[in-house]
């Protein structure tokens, strides 16, 4: 049997996780992207819209579409940034905070399920590998 590449293992696993999260999000009339966005917005101080995309690793166009949808559903509010007259801060509404808590508990349940199946040593190794991959990418040592 051929050995799987690291790239294939990462992609296949992430696609399975994304499918799982999207299936669960349907139970809350949501999507994984909305849940991830809710978790990326500071629940107390809001988050500048310009920092949200880079924080999430998402292109501005995709993020803009998600934010528009979230605003229409009453999950977020956009307010002028008092520190930057051109900027906008994204705040969670009470409904957004409720949905953020749903997203957070889903992520924590996933983490707990994995921790119950994998030893701490293996989990530490997993994070060492992901850190190494991210460092190689950040340091532009791959291509």
TrEMBL record:
<keyword id="KW-0805">Transcription regulation</keyword>
<dbReference type="InterPro" id="IPR023187">
    <property type="entry name" value="Tscrpt_reg_MarR-type_CS"/>
</dbReference>
<dbReference type="InterPro" id="IPR036388">
    <property type="entry name" value="WH-like_DNA-bd_sf"/>
</dbReference>
<dbReference type="Pfam" id="PF01047">
    <property type="entry name" value="MarR"/>
</dbReference>
<feature type="domain" description="HTH marR-type">
    <location>
        <begin position="3"/>
        <end position="135"/>
    </location>
</feature>
<protein>
    <submittedName>
        <fullName>DNA-binding transcriptional regulator, MarR family</fullName>
    </submittedName>
</protein>
<dbReference type="InterPro" id="IPR036390">
    <property type="entry name" value="WH_DNA-bd_sf"/>
</dbReference>
<dbReference type="GO" id="GO:0003700">
    <property type="term" value="F:DNA-binding transcription factor activity"/>
</dbReference>
<keyword id="KW-0804">Transcription</keyword>
<dbReference type="GO" id="GO:0003677">
    <property type="term" value="F:DNA binding"/>
</dbReference>
<keyword id="KW-0238">DNA-binding</keyword>
<dbReference type="InterPro" id="IPR000835">
    <property type="entry name" value="HTH_MarR-typ"/>
</dbReference>
